[in-house]
Amino acid sequence: MPKILVTGGAGFVGSNLIEAIVSSGAEACSLDDYSTGREENHVVGCEYHKGDVSEEKDLGVVGAVDFIFHLAAKARISRSFEDSAGYFKANAMGTMGVCRFALERGIPLVYAGTGSNHGGRYRNPYTFSKAVGEDVVRMSMGLGLKASIARFFNVYGPHESVCEDHSTLIGSWRGSLARGEIPVIYGDGTKVRDFTHVSDITEALMGVMQKRAFGFEFDLGRGSPLSVLEVSRMFGCGFEFRPDRRGEMQESVCDNSLARKVLGWNPCRNLKDYVDSEKIRTSPPKK
Prior knowledge:
- The chain is built from ten helices and 13 strands.
- It is of the alpha/beta class.
- The longest helix is centred in the N-terminal third of the chain and has 22 residues, at 84-105.
């Protein structure tokens, strides 16, 4: 039975991926520093370790593994301006540590990149640090590492954070409604994003591992872009408009043709179905 390490396994995407790994019959383990990961995301059957991927001694506690999904990262563009050094340490140096660990032991790896990379790597500290992480993976591949890069586009779904500081757009709006607050749109709502269900993401990641699809850079997005205003109408409530936040691109649209061709991937979950199923189309009280 293969043993698979998920860094950031107590987080949003990581916990969903671990569910898929355990369901497949493989053995799963997680390394997470719990800065945003949560124990409530733990999956029965997974072995959990607390540690920092940028620290070699922490990586060593997981023991022998057969495959690595490197998802651990500091996320969110707006917060990265306040802690650029911390983002670089976690996302760039952390990836260096994981790649070194994998290279020394001959372990294949999938690196979770970000679709924001297509909007310019120098736009904000978050995107830059993740882009440097991609460079580290490419360098390591040149040294013999079997790896692929998988860039995520606006992921939503079960286990998503609803905390304003750490959540994506859908999670942030869900959290606002749950707290009885009016959800916020930054800018005029014309930004375009490719919203992708986390189950579609995990299916693609499992496909990379199962097909041994190394040497690729996959863009994992739904391929059906929507404006923020279009999404807001699905919620059926009022929104507060605030000035746009710096560092964000106007459009983030995914070309998923490579993943479809190589992995046979078919992202099929619809955002509206998720919004309806979560019963979040209710208006919060007025402030």
